[in-house]
Design brief:
Shape: globular
Radius of gyration: 22 Å
CATH class of the largest domain: Mainly Alpha
Structural class: mainly alpha
Number of helices: 19
Order of helices and strands: HHHHHHHHHHHHHHHHHHH
Helix content: over 70%
Number of domains: 2
Strand content: under 5%
CATH architecture of the largest domain: Up-down Bundle
Distance between the termini: 39 Å
């Protein structure tokens, strides 16, 4: 406990140095070089991310929660410290401060790398093995939370927030309901896999179904995100609900993934075979990142989110493609770790900074937050109806699909950037993500122990 207090004190000390002159880091130093303010913010963000992750991992929680909490602290210290405005520029609707533009860009790159890593967690051969149960569990895990989230949104959100109307006067309220429902669809593969691994249950049939379903769930979730994002963009441009256009977007999304996978499987091994002949150091990492960025750019050019291309790139690249770089198979994930360690936490800190704690002074915020948490948990419990095998712990499978984690935060961030959710709703979404992530590990352990004792 003493170590934790020392870490917090160190963190606050560094933060207060950075905000010494009424929150303007450029006044802290005498340099005129604009990179100095970027370095200050970057240093504070990385320090906050690492300390937050360390503390939460010590209490048995995912590091991402610590990064989120410390991001919330960074963004809301102004509530207790007069004059604190260090991160206000990162909260602005239109970011103009040069340091904030840089940090926002780093966070965006972090999201791409994060989804690339998530894609690497599975392979096409894994997808073929998931079986009917995983596919059914995934489909139910998308449909039921979507319906429940939509219903909760309809009950609690009866008018478009003024901040959204200011940006899009003709914005229809059902776009908000659709987005809230879509946000509840996803499952965090990374967090679920980590919990199952820690419990020593990775090889059980239940775990294989959960992981397979979570992978399928995220692919379906990304397709839904692509469709919903385009619906919202059209609405903001004054285009009415257009079913043919929505079907076209869905077709584009599916076609992109199918073509990317088909072409990738056929030509990526040949491409990497050529790359192995190059003598340049670290060509494995560079060529993989270039492939990820290329698919991200391509997906954006056809109107989809960059993260869809990144996820597809991770799914395509299998370790077998990298044998030519060494005598043994090389795990790309190990090479990506140092880069992900730098870029990805910036995204989670930025998400935490966006949370405005003052929005919770509105009692209605608590109501929608509680009901969305219940919808998020209950919606995934219907997944048990998709398990075809007999004698399995179906409740365990449903609980394993609960955490929204990093994928839920990506949804929230895109919703904020599209102006489909205001500060209050964004804060609610982040709280839902945090709660579903925190409660899953203890619920899984409790349920598995109870199931084993009943056998």
């Amino acid at each position: 406990m003493k170590k934790i207090f020392l870490i917090i004190i160190l963190y606050l000390f560094v933060s207060f140095i950075a905000i010494a002159s009424e929150g303007d880091p450029q006044d802290v130093v005498s340099h005129t070089d604009p990179v100095v303010s970027v370095l200050i913010y970057f240093s504070v963000i990385l320090l906050a991310a690492k300390l937050g992750g360390e503390i939460f991992e010590r209490i048995g929680q995912p590091a991402v929660l610590g990064e989120l909490v410390f991001g919330i602290l960074l963004g809301n210290l102004g509530l207790i410290i007069p004059g604190y405005n260090l991160f206000d520029a990162l909260r602005a609707e239109n970011i103009t401060e040069h340091w904030a533009v840089v940090m926002s860009s780093i966070a965006s790159i972090g999201v791409i790398i994060l989804l690339f890593e998530v894609g690497l967690e599975s392979t096409l051969s894994d997808m073929k093995k998931v079986g009917k149960s995983s596919i059914l569990v995934a489909c139910i895990g998308v449909i039921c939370p979507f319906i429940l989230g939509y219903i909760v949104s309809v009950i609690f959100i009866t008018e478009v927030p003024e901040s959204i109307l200011a940006m899009a006067p003709n914005f229809a309220i059902y776009n908000i309901h659709i987005f809230i429902g879509a946000m509840l669809c996803v499952t965090s593969v990374g967090i679920t896999a980590r919990v199952l691994q820690d419990m020593g249950l990775s090889n059980t049939k239940e775990s294989r179904i959960i992981i397979g379903a979570a992978i399928t769930d995220d692919i379906l979730g990304l397709l839904i995100l692509a469709i919903v994002s385009n619906i919202i963009i059209s609405a903001e441009q004054g285009v009415a609900f257009d079913l043919p256009n929505i079907l076209k977007i869905a077709l584009y999304s599916i076609a992109f993934l199918v073509l990317a996978v088909f072409i990738g499987v056929k030509y990526v091994p040949k491409l990497f075979n050529l790359v192995t002949k190059m003598q340049t150091h670290d060509m494995l990492l560079i060529s993989s990142l270039l492939f990820c960025f290329a698919l991200s750019i391509l997906s954006n050019l056809i109107g989809l989110a960059t993260i869809i291309g990144a996820s597809a790139a991770g799914l395509i690249l299998e370790d077998v493609h990298f044998k030519g770089f060494n005598k043994n198979t090389i795990h790309l994930r190990e090479y990506l770790k140092p880069i992900a360690t730098i870029f990805v936490p910036v995204f989670f800190i930025q998400m935490g900074v966006q949370v405005r704690l003052e929005t919770f002074l509105d009692p209605s915020i608590f109501g929608i937050a509680l009901c969305l948490i219940l919808a998020a948990v209950i919606g995934k419990q219907f997944c048990s109806f998709g398990v075809l095998e007999k004698g399995l712990n179906k409740t365990f499978i449903g609980l394993g699909m609960v955490p929204r984690g990093e994928v839920g935060l990506i949804f929230a961030g895109i919703g904020k950037s599209l102006n489909v959710i205001d500060d209050g709703l964004f804060s609610v979404v982040v709280i839902v993500v945090m709660v579903t992530t925190v409660i899953t590990p203890p619920l899984l352990k409790w349920n598995w122990k109870r199931f084993k004792s009943s056998i």
